[in-house]
Structure formats: structure tokens, C-alpha cells
Amino acid sequence: MATRLEIPRHEVQRRLATDNPWWRAGQGIDAEEAAWPRRAYFPQFAQLTLDTSVRRAVVLIGPRRVGKTVMLKHLVALLLAEKVAGTQVLFLSLDTPLYSGRSLESLVQLFVDLQQHGAGRPLWVLFDEVQYLKDWEVHLKSLVDTYPHIRFVASGSAAAALRMKSRESGAGRFTEFILPPLTFAEYLRFAGQEDSLVVDLADTDGGAPRYHTPDIHGLNAEFVNYLNYGGFPEAVMNPVVRANPARFLRQDIVDKVLLKDLPSLYGIGDTQELNRFFNVLAFNTGNEIGLEDLSKHAGISKTKLSDYLEYLEAAFLIRRVHRIDDNALRMLRARTFKVYLTNPSIRAALFGMVMADDEAMGNLAETAVWSQWLHSAQVSRSLHYARWKAGRQDLEVDIVSLDPRTEKPRFAVEIKWSDRIPTALNELRGLHALASKNLLTRMPLVTTRTHTGKTTLDGIEIEFMPVALHCYTIARNLLRGG
Predict the structure, then answer these.
(1) What is the pLDDT of residue 330?
(2) 309 or 255: whose pLDDT is higher?
């Protein structure tokens, strides 16, 4: 019997009907969400969720504001297009106050009763913002076991906590699907600029995927936009958010992750200190850091710093990149590493937008290149940076890919946001030394601002490509067919 303080059942049912307009004949998902371009990841996600041969829940994980909710709605639209009856699909956003205090099973049963579904009828249940339910992973695992005819999909933005609980409690019952921020190629498509700014040369000569821009200055303008807000679909699609990303995005993408998304699971008690530490990392994205020096500077123990780095990486906010030497050997006792934001737009959300000639552009361009590679876990694991002593000189190469079988370098990239390097080749001593010592499978690459071409430095042929086009090439090739 319901108490006077309990939200009446009919109020919950009315909200369910509001959130699921496709229960009414001829209705679909919200027109604005339907108009959004689909993420390049959507075909993979849809294929995974539509395959009901394995009894598992799909858990969609990713940082805040990268389009997880819209991807779930696009899944609903696909189901409707596949002639699944709208009344067989339930979408629940668990941050809705009317659902507070109710278990997942009670909500599922409410849906079944409301639509009068018979036992064993195939159904689809989508839980959005699942982290708002305490012990969600226990409840979801129970649902998977109890309702074999229902395909459960859950999403959430408390990425670090979700990932930990998914793996601890959902082993054998959950399949993770990670949705990263927008790539530069996706950004151009969302912004409606891809067709006018990039030409796929493979379409004309039948060769391997290669790309050209007829307007490098236009492409660079969009690249700066991408750095400022383009990692977030909402900012690209909504001019109000785009005009002031700090105002609309900072609280969701940073404050909630650092202050509310259960950092205590990683043994972190001082969330204010974690916040300050992240601000330092975000401002210095792309720089090499050492725990010892950082500990002295910040007044935080090395053990605490390690905990913070682990959490920030699990929350998809940063990525640590480890160092090798000129012989492609990993440091046995590496005291330093580089830290990159996984989404370069976070820096602008925290500290304000950058202009094309700002000092920060060099590190942000490097961060953008790294963020494209992070869309392939397999490839990104092979990437390092190289730094070593050559006499009195410190030599460095920004990106070196090691073959996972041989541990030998496959390719090397030096990232610049400048056209000066083609006339100052002496600054490529590190790249030349590494390429001279190792037989690379691909020509060494140096990115520029606008310059395209090739040169030979002491017998080593080097390619130049604008960094914006390089970012597009990485993203488009990794997600080719998406």
C-alpha cells in the first residue's frame, strides 16, 4: 500500500509515457535529436546491441557531453525503422526525480504491466544516466538473469565509477562500449564542413585513403573551432552553447566528474585538491611531467598523485603517454611522462577560448593529434614519445609507434603548428636521429600550419602535412566505414 509521501504509481506511468512518445502510433524520437548526425561509432554500437544471441547488457560508457543519450535515442529510431513496435521499447533517464527510490526491476515491471506484455515477448529497455541508482550494477545483472527476453542497454557519465563497477560485478553479464569525444572528422561532418574542406583522393585514383584540402585556411579555422568546442556534439549543434562553452559545459564535464562522480572509489577523499590538480594538468596539456617534481611543487604526496592520475585516466579526462629512447627502448624506471587531455576542448571550457596565434596552440595541436589516436585502443597502446641525451643535447620526437610484435618503431611524427620548420631543418635532429637508427615502415612526418611537401635531410626523406589535415586523416582512417 502506498504511503502519502510516496509518488503515486499513475504519476510515474504518465512520466513514462511522456519520455517514450513512440508508444503512440506514428510517433518517434524528438525531431531535434533525430536531426543530429549519427556518431561514427553508431553502426558498431547498433550491431552490438541488436545481436541478442548472447545474453548480456550493453553498458555505454564515456565522458560527459559526448552524445551518449542521443546515441540511445538513435538506437530507438533504428529499432522503430526495423519494425519493432514502439510499445516494445522503454527509455528511462534515471536522473528523473519521479523515478527516485525505485528499483530498476520495479520500473521494468511497471512498463510490462502498463503495456500488457506477455511473458517472453522480446523487449528493449534502455537505462540512461544509470549511475544515479545506487548499486545499479547488482540490479542490472539480476535483470539480465531474470528476463532473458529483454535486451538491456545502460549508459552513464560517471565513467570511472561505471567502469570499475561494470568490471567487478558485471563479469560475464555486461559488454562495455566506450564512446569518446568527437574526432576532428566527425566535427567537420557535424558542422557541415567536411565536403567543402576535404577531398578523398582515393575516390579519384583508387589508391589507399589519402586526403587533400582545397582550402587550408578554411580547414585551419575549423580546426581552431574544434580545439575550442568541437569535442562536444552539443556545442557544435547548439549556437548558444558554442558561443560560451565555459558557461554551459564546465560544470558538467569537469565539476561533476571531479566532485560528484564517486572519486572515493579510487581512494580519493579530497576532491577539491583533485580539482586543483586537474586544472594544472589541463592548462599544461602536452607537457612532460615527473611525479617527484610535481609532488614538491604541489605539496601533494607521490602516492596521492598516482591515485589522482589513475582516476583522471579512468574518467577519460587525461591520457598518460610513456617515454622511450632513441633505440626505442622503454625506460626501466621512468620518472617522467607526458599527460594529454583526451578532449582538447576541455582546456577552453576551463580557461577560455584560444586564437590561432596563441602560445597554447602548439600544445593544443599536439593534444588534438593524440586525441584522434585514442579512438583506437589497440593503436594508442603502441604510441610513445621519445626523449634522450645526445652529448649535451636533449633530443625528442613527439610520437613514435612501436610494432607490438617486434617492439621496433613503425612510424614517427613531430607535431608543429608552424610553417617555419621546412626552412629550419636543424630543429629536426631528434626525428632524423631516430629514423637513421631504425628502419621505419612509413616516411617520418612533420606537421605544419599550412605547408605540404617533402624534403630530404641527410639521406632521410621527410614528409610535411598541415596538422589539421593530419588530424582528419587519422580520425577518418580509424573510423573509415563509420
Answers:
(1) 67
(2) 309
Alpha-carbon separation of residue 278 from 171, 232, 310, 339 (angstroms) = 31, 19, 12, 11
CA distance 438 to 335: 25
Q: CA-to-CA distance for 145 and 132, rounded, in angstroms?
A: 22
Note the pLDDT of residue 334.
Answer: 62
In whole angstroms, give the CA distance from residue 310 to residue 329: 24
Residue 318 near residue 342, CB atoms below 8 Å:
yes
Distance of CA 390 to the CA centre of its chain: 37
Write the DSSP string, 301-334: -HHHHHHHHHHHHHTTSEEEE-EE-TT-PBPTT-
Q: Is the distance from CB of 92 to CB of 150 less than 8 angstroms?
A: no
Q: Are 369 and 183 in contact (CB under 8 A)?
A: no
Residues 6+ apart with CB under 8 A from 3: none
Write the CATH number of the domain with boundaries 9-179: 3.40.50.300
Q: What is the residue extent of each domain of the chain?
A: 9-179, 185-478
